[in-house]
Specification:
Strand content: over 45%
Number of strands: 14
Largest sheet: 14 strands, antiparallel
Structural class: mainly beta
Helix content: 10-25%
Order of helices and strands: HHEEEEEEEEEEEEEE
Shape: globular
């Protein structure tokens, strides 16, 4: 067999294996430790945009990793934002998850459920591939109810949002720069509400999109609560990375 023919035959045999190898690489995300850095001293500055009731407000939100602290028997990183909220994040073989939170009015961190594993508030499970799903307890961000108290539903109602990995090796452009190899998550929850008496009860889909990039973490976040009835109003919340710096 001539050398050129041998090379062509070898290429034909290797092509399917190469394609399978590429698919395997594309179906797995980077290690979640690089997608959500926990080193003390890191700082993120985001542009925060809130659209609600026909108004749009923009300002900056700053988040930084303060240091290591033990909470509920786990070593966590304390993350503090410029609103005065503190979150305690741990990482183990199951992934990266929130252990507790504390607002500016609380004296001590308020613990989350961490057992069983399915109850954990995962930021990112350890194993990420296209189609990976998990659920997280959260609250409406912007929804308000006109004739009830409390006016803002985040103070009185929890929801269970289903998250799914819908993108790997994403390219994301923000004012902080262009980021590659990012993971895109989508969260969704169907809420059945009597938003308008003329229409009766209708389903409203709350959606959340998150982009995490290697060595930087969260670069973009969007929550859409598209409700506009006589009894309930929703809106849109967005974060976009302006600046990232290390210690």
């Amino acid at each position: 067999m001539k050398p050129n023919q041998l090379i062509r035959n070898l290429a034909k045999r290797l092509a399917p294996l190469t394609a399978l190898a590429l698919l395997a690489c594309q179906s797995q995300a980077p290690e979640d430790g690089s997608l959500f850095p926990l080193q003390p001293g890191l700082r993120w500055t985001y542009e925060q945009t809130v659209r609600h009731a026909g108004k749009t407000e923009r300002d900056e939100l700053v988040v930084h990793n303060a240091g290591k602290i033990e909470v509920a028997g786990l070593l966590t990183t304390e993350r503090i934002n410029s609103l005065g909220n503190r979150y305690y994040i741990a990482r183990d073989d199951s992934g990266t998850f929130r252990v507790a939170s504390r607002n500016e009015l609380a004296d001590e961190p308020q613990p989350d459920e961490i057992t069983p594993l399915s109850a954990r508030r995962f930021v990112l499970p350890a194993k990420l591939a296209l189609g990976t799903k998990w659920q997280v307890s959260t609250k409406p961000f912007l929804m308000t109810q006109i004739a009830r108290w409390p006016y803002e539903m985040k103070y009185g109602r929890s929801i269970l949002m289903t998250f799914e990995v819908i993108g790997l090796d994403e390219v994301v452009k923000t004012p902080a720069g262009e980021f590659r190899g990012c993971v895109k998550l989508q969260g969704s929850h169907v809420m059945r509400l009597l938003a308008d008496p003329t229409e009766g009860y209708t389903d409203h889909v709350l959606r959340q999109l998150e982009w995490y990039c290697p060595k930087v973490g969260l670069v973009r976040f969007e929550r859409d609560e598209p409700i506009d009835g006589r009894f309930y109003k929703g809106g849109n919340y967005k974060l976009e990375l302006l600046k990232f710096s290390g210690s």
